[in-house]
Automatic annotation (TrEMBL), chain A:
<dbReference type="InterPro" id="IPR036388">
    <property type="entry name" value="WH-like_DNA-bd_sf"/>
</dbReference>
<protein>
    <submittedName>
        <fullName>PadR family transcriptional regulator</fullName>
    </submittedName>
</protein>
<dbReference type="InterPro" id="IPR036390">
    <property type="entry name" value="WH_DNA-bd_sf"/>
</dbReference>
<feature type="domain" description="Transcription regulator PadR N-terminal">
    <location>
        <begin position="7"/>
        <end position="78"/>
    </location>
</feature>
<dbReference type="Pfam" id="PF03551">
    <property type="entry name" value="PadR"/>
</dbReference>
<dbReference type="InterPro" id="IPR005149">
    <property type="entry name" value="Tscrpt_reg_PadR_N"/>
</dbReference>
TrEMBL record, chain C:
<feature type="transmembrane region" description="Helical">
    <location>
        <begin position="709"/>
        <end position="731"/>
    </location>
</feature>
<feature type="transmembrane region" description="Helical">
    <location>
        <begin position="362"/>
        <end position="387"/>
    </location>
</feature>
<dbReference type="GO" id="GO:0044874">
    <property type="term" value="P:lipoprotein localization to outer membrane"/>
</dbReference>
<feature type="transmembrane region" description="Helical">
    <location>
        <begin position="738"/>
        <end position="764"/>
    </location>
</feature>
<feature type="domain" description="ABC3 transporter permease C-terminal">
    <location>
        <begin position="659"/>
        <end position="768"/>
    </location>
</feature>
<dbReference type="InterPro" id="IPR051447">
    <property type="entry name" value="Lipoprotein-release_system"/>
</dbReference>
<comment type="similarity">
    <text>Belongs to the ABC-4 integral membrane protein family. LolC/E subfamily.</text>
</comment>
<feature type="transmembrane region" description="Helical">
    <location>
        <begin position="253"/>
        <end position="274"/>
    </location>
</feature>
<keyword id="KW-0812">Transmembrane</keyword>
Amino acid sequence: MSISHTLLGLLEGGPRHGYDLKRTFDVHFGQDRPLHYGQVYATMSRLLKNGLVEVDGVETGGGPERKRYAITDAGVTDVEQWLARPEKPEPYLQSVLYHKVVLALLTDRSADDLLDTQRAEHLRLMRELTRRKIAGDLADQLVCDHALFHLEADLRWLELTAARLDRLASEVRS
Amino acid sequence: MTTVSPPALLTAERLRKTYGATPALDGAGFAIAAGEVVAIMGPSGSGKSTLLHCLAGIVPPDEGQIRYRDRDMLTLTDAERSTLRREEFGFVFQFGQLVPELTCLENVALPLRLSGRRRGPAEAKAGELLARLEVEDLAGKRPGEVSGGQGQRVAVARSLVNGPRLLFADEPTGALDSLNGERVMTLLVAAARESGTAVVLVTHETRVAAYSDREVVVRDGRVRDLAGAL
Amino acid sequence: MSAGVRGWARDLWLGVRLSVTGGPSAWIRTSLTTVGIALGVTTLLLAASVPQVVKGGAEREDARSIFGNSVEERGDDTLLARGEGTEYHGVRISGMELQPDAGERTTAEPPPGLSAFPGPGEMVVSPALDRLLDSPEGELLAERMDMRRVGVIGDEGLVGSQELYFYAGVDDMPEQGALRIDGFGQSSDDGELHPALLLLILVIAVVLLMPVPILITTAARFGGERRDRRLAALRLVGADSGMTRRIAAGESLVGALLGVVAGGLLFLAVRPPLARISVDETSTFVEDIIPSPTLALIVLLAVPLLAVGTTLFAMRSIVVEPLGVVRQSRERPRRLLWRLVPGLLGAGLLALMLGGDFSGSGIAIVQAATGVMLLLVALTALLPWLVERVTGRLRGGPASWQLATRRLQLSSGPAVRAVSGIMVAVAGATALYMLFDGVRAENSVQTHADLERAQGDAHAGTTDRESIDRAVGEIEEIPDVETVLHYVESFGTLWRKGTEGPSQETANIVVADCSTLVELAHMESCAEGEVYFAPQDGDVTASVPEPGDVVAVGASAEEMADARGLWTVPEMREVEPRDSPNGLPVRGLLMTPEALDGLWPAEGSVAILMRADFDDRDTLELVRNAMADLPEGDASTLVSERISSQLVTIQTWMVIGASGVLALIGCSMLITTLEQLRERKRLLAALVAVGARRTTLGCSVLWQTAVPVVLGIALASAVGLLLGAMLMSLVRISPDGWLAFLPMAGAGAGVIALVTLGSFPLLWRLMRPDGLRTE
């Protein structure tokens, strides 16, 4: 699931506390749906078990004890593979793609590469739909067009987002 | 980069082209096989059009190599390249390519007339192409009297009238709404496939690019072949 | 109402601002209009000055006239006056010899421009003559006019500033041939102009002035298409059609007013150099180049009105819509019929006059001028129809031809408008050229001179052997003179043998040595002392003498009674007459001096024939100087045909002037073409991409200019020739010189070349693929 990849990706910037991770996630992606701390905790446990993160240290202060998580090499590889893998083009993908673009920017990876990969995948499907459309009857055409317009819209939105996030990314990184 | 491809009709390597201080192309490469439809995509200002102009022999690149069938395009004289464009290539632009004083039929016949063909046969051939693009009823009208979509179909007819091996289309639907754009693309690709014409299609619209067999992206003057990426 | 006026002012002012601040293209447009209108204004102001120029010169000429002042009795206030003159380097120098009867005590008024009479051996000269005499160029003239210069004639005594004129004082003037007067000046009488000359002047006026309003209206429309688009942009932001019209008027007003100012300044600037020019020995004074106030006022008011009116009229046929300029609906095909009306009327008016004489009467002048004007107007009316018809029929041809003709078919308006301006100039100039050719042929006299036998000829009104021999001797000394022949021509009263007294008849006598006589008659041999007779064919003034008749050689009839100087005609040998090398017939009794038994003709003239090289123009002046001491002595070179050089000059200037008009209009066509090309930047680039060759597109520009210009010039030449032929018939010169259109046709070809070549640099630039870039 993408939340684990996203949290993992956020750790690439440096070791963080669980609460810290939740706050960072919320800043970038939690506009409509902030993350529950329980979700973070559960995800981190799973990642720990899979060896993708490790506990960097434990703080004991006034409050409850807090674990600091850091990403392992296996974790970095996992993020990389996730980003490079195009999503199956289907409508309403934006949240996943959005996470990927933001993470790529936050981790100094090329959003353009990600975009091109995704575009190729989208286009593969779009070409197929276009072929079907040209060969098909009016009903086919309408159905295909619906899908085509959605796919195109996804890509365009993605490009726009990437272009805008560029500035955000530089702000975030600084 | 080990994609097996049919023998290339046109190949370009390491193209470099600078306008003033701005590099438009910076080591771009490109290849297209006979009968293939390839879309060139990329954001505005990325060098798509410059790449097309170089490939078509309209603008010589500062550096690099372009081969068309067994010929080195860069060693051809200006006149030879003009002849090549007249006889082997076709062109469709976004707008402003039809001569306003000539009728649609005469516009379509123009490339043949420029090659010195006589009026009668040239216009007969032009009539066929107009019919293929389903605009034969516009033959006697002037470009100012037809709609944008009709005009583009006339332009497509003109680009194919000389039976080109290679058609260059630079944002052919750029000035059209989606329905007209789809019509033009459907007719263009169908006509090109029918005559075995390869098409280099420059567009920034994914939906238009979807009419191609393959697409490349131009970014910062360099070409990325999407099929080959990862 | 005041708001209306304010609105007007605001719109006009906006137009003014647009024309000044509209960037380089607006500047070019405004300055072209300015130049066009300025040239028109200058021409019109000069034309308006002609009356004063003519009047001023005539008044001063009248003021120094000696005619109408003659008196019988001599007195303290009378003087003897006689016209004098010579020629120097082809220019006439005139003057007057004066001899007050009371000598220095005279109370007579000196002629205008002089403060006192020149004394004997003194002369007063015009400033131009003064300069000539002092210059190295006038050295030989100074030798001839060697009297002491005691002053300079004031302007009031000269017809023009460059006039070569002198007053010389003498004390030995014979009363015969001189006029005794008591003052200078006569009331002017209107000299009758030769009808042909009058017609010439008339046509010149019409032809020179007709293009001016056309030029002004053309100039007012320079770059009009771009302006129309600008106005469309104004409509888009809310200007109504009335406002756009006023803005356009304001815009053209700037060019017009600047043109009027520039024209006025140009007029002032050309006055001094014009006054310094001497054409055909005629010049004027700066002070005389003053337009008549009424005419000047008309010019200054009419020109801006014409310019603004043209703009508004031009805008009538187009509708400036917010999104562009729409030509009024689909133009109806132009109709031939009404376009023929002015032409037919004009030709009719002139044709009506063909039968009779051109009398130069008021009605005839109006009729001729109206006819000429109508014919020229007909041209501008016919051309649009012709261009439309001809281009409408053009089919096929290479691609470049198709591109050009289709463009002309779709909108021939701008091209035709520009060409109309050319046409009147070309037609008028062609007609005049032809008429001039005719007049020139008419005025060119066959002199019958035989240039093989002699190249120069001098003569004097004397038979005095001593002075003749001296002059001949001096002439023989001149380096370029090879041989000199001379003969004395005289006549004597005939006393028929066996009659009571002298008859009324006279006999011609020619005396020369044998080497000369053989040039004057076909004779097998010549011997000293022999007398020959060359019969005169058809000459009734001289009789045929018979041997035994007595001729009074060098004696009047009265003296004959005293039996002095009588010579008896001996046996003669008849010879076949032969023209003298100078082309004049020599008839009568031919003899050597020995045959006269010691007698010598007292009255008559001497002719001197020279074989000489006159390439150095001073040679002739040296001969004239040698002849200067003989009464009425003068010399000239022989020519086989005497052509009127002033006509050649006028013809040349006319072609130059018409070519100037052509060049200006060529510039306006060039601007239009350049604008058109710039508009089609994208299209041109697309055509290049398609593989169109430079030559194809270049040819298309060439055809586009050439077709209307060629049609225009062809039509103009035809009308010009027709007009010329009619004018020639009017003054009874048989029409000839059908090639008179060639110079103007050549100039037209020049315009085509100018426009085509001028547009090539831009065309080449636009054909670069940059035009395809969408930015």
